[in-house]
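Consider the following assembly input.
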Amino acid sequence: MVSLNHYLVLSGILFSIGTAGVFLRRNLITILLSIEIMLNAVNLTFVAVGRYLGTVDGQIITFFVMTVAAAEAAVGLALVIALFRHRETLSPDAFTLLKW
Amino acid sequence: MDLNTIGFFVFGAIAVLASLGVIGQRNPMHSVMLLIVSFGALAGLYILLDAPFSAVTQIIIYAGAIMVLFLFVVMLLNAHTEADALPQVIGPRGMQIGAVLSVLLAGEVVWGLSRLGLTWFGNDPATIANISSVSRIGIAIFTTHAFAFEVTSILILVSMVGAVVIARREH
């Protein structure tokens, strides 16, 4: 039998994979993909807890998170294109103008 | 082992392995493809959780629309290799610390949840029919959550204008 804890552990593992991707990768597109992994891990938590509580609210929040993810992807990829046009690279190490 | 348990472990393993592949691939194109596999496995988990609406929106919106946007940008920029020659700002030590922090986060979540008692899902057929009904979700979105729904439309409008303005070529 599968309990709520199983789903929460799976979600935590997926979220950690996403954070590892943000920390370890040196490619702006892969970093955005890692953020999508994290958003999906949170979605899994919402759906699992909604199933546990017996309400549709978890699925509705998932729906809104997907909308926000779409908006985030559109703006993030536009920023990536603008940055690539300036420096011809996708490495975040090339964009340190504001670094103190 | 019933079908739900087997499905959970199969889909969970696919999701974790595909996500590890996403952050392990050098080629962004392969990363995007593996992320679509991971999203498909998550859609299977949503079906096991009696949430077919979330499963279908996961496939249509995430795998169908957002990932196509990513693929489009990967092909547009044609940047298939990760630049290793650039001096890294945080250095290898910083990346090791980041990896250790991620593993610690996973360990912390697993440890904390394993200390709690197991919480079982309810099996009441009426509740399951209630939460898997798309019409219930629609009614809740357009009545209880109507304000959030309208704010979402403004968010999408703003992000659309923002994307056009940011990616525009300066003259």
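Helices of chain A lie at 4-24, 28-53, 57-87. Ask yourself how this observation constrains the way the partners meet.
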